[in-house]
Write a structure and sequence with these properties.
This protein is an alpha+beta fold and 64 residues long. The chain has helices at residues 21-30, 45-53; strands at 7-12, 38-42, 58-63. Strands 2-1-3 form a 3-stranded antiparallel beta sheet, with no helix packed on it. The longest helix is centred in the middle third of the chain and has 10 residues, at 21-30. This is Large ribosomal subunit protein uL30.
């Protein structure tokens, strides 16, 4: 029986204006463009690393 993969809900709370290019690119890779926009992604080490780059711009919570 397969276990259910955990998912993360990532919400952008601050704009990307005047941010470093790597932070803008990371937000784009996650699919975040507008303030208040949320995306649901699998909880993988790669996604955790991207969230770490944007930790001061986003909020993260577990999604079902």
């Amino acid at each position: 029986m397969a276990t259910k993969a955990k998912k993360l809900k990532i919400t952008l709370h601050h704009g990307l204006v005047n941010r470093k290019p790597n932070q803008r690119a990371t937000a784009q890779t996650l699919g975040l463009r507008k303030i208040g926009q949320s995306v649901v992604r699998e909880d993988t080490p790669a996604v955790r690393g991207m969230v770490n780059v944007l930790r001061h711009l986003v909020t993260v919570e577990e999604a079902d």
